[in-house]
Amino acid sequence: MQIYEKRTYAIKVGQMAQLIDLYQNQGYPILERDGFADHIVGYFISDTGPLHQLIHIYRFEDDAARRAFWARLYANEEFMAVAKQLRSLMESQDVQLMKSAPWGARP
Fold first, then answer.
1. What residues make up the domain containing 19?
2. Cα 6 to Cα 27: distance, rounded to the nearest angstrom
3. What is the spatial distance between Cα 30 and Cα 10, in angstroms, rounded to a whole number?
4. CA separation, residue 66 to residues 3, 4, 39, 44, 46 (Å)
5. What is the 3-state secondary structure (H, E, C) of 49-71?
6. What is the pTM (predicted TM-score) of this model?
7. How many domains are contained in the chain?
8. CATH number of residue 58's parent domain
9. Which residues of 21-38 are buried (b: 16+ CB within 10 A; e: fewer)?
10. Within a domain: 43
11. pLDDT tens digits, residue range 4-30?
């Protein structure tokens, strides 16, 4: 059964532009080049409600695939160097695992 992982990063006020630049110019190109982006459903930036949030959603075939993905990403030294910079711009991180409802569209 496919599962989705929603990661919500609360970004320090005033740091979103730096985070966007870092992700866009360094982080995401690594994810794309090394095949990690294949699991990304999308990235979103909050516009209402809680502000200063970067939200990303990933899709995996099952929990084993999810765990293998994160183990592989954490072993990627180039991305982890970028992640260290990204973490300094964050206040908190929330991770939620979801499964599709038995009706409606599936990304």
1. 3-96
2. 18
3. 22
4. 8, 9, 9, 20, 25
5. CCCCEEEEEEEECCHHHHHHHHH
6. 0.91
7. 1
8. 3.30.70.100
9. ebbeeebbebbeeeebee
10. yes
11. 999 999 999 999 999 999 999 999 999
